Amino acid sequence: MKFALLFVLTAVVAVSTNEVADPSSTNRALVLSIGTIASNDRLLRSFSVTRGVTATSQIVDLRYTAPNSMRIRAIRVRQVGASQFATVRVVGGGVGWNTVTLRFINSPRRGFNFNVQIWGCFG
Predict the structure, then answer these.
(1) Where is the secretion signal located (predicted)?
(2) Are 103 and 59 in contact (CB under 8 A)?
(3) pLDDT digit string (tens) for 63-96?
(4) Residue 11: phi, psi to the nearest 5?
(5) What distance in Å separates the CA atoms of residue 37 and residue 25, rounded to the nearest whole number?
(6) Domain extent listing, the chain
(7) pTM exceeds 0.90, yes or no
(8) Are the CB atoms for 55 and 108 separated by under 8 Å?
């Protein structure tokens, strides 16, 4: 009986985290993590954002619109490679919406390389 209770408690803790592990991302820094990924969510879009070195800071806004009747539940942005001291933030929409606008800003004389994942579900 104690074993069954321990098993149930372990399962509840595992399900309550609602995170999906990405085994290929061990060498990447998580720059932005908003929302939670549940078991019924699916990866709506995955893409890379790369900019070369520029003399001054550049602002790059990217907008993603989910398919009809889908809502964004989580946004994950990971930096690829060594830190380039770039920033990323949500400037429009986001979790609970069907659109999101991400703003990427590089540091002077540096570029950036990010992997972006947008998760969502029907609703």
Answers:
(1) 1-17
(2) yes
(3) 999 998 899 999 999 999 988 899 999 999 999 9
(4) -65, -40
(5) 16
(6) 47-123
(7) no
(8) yes
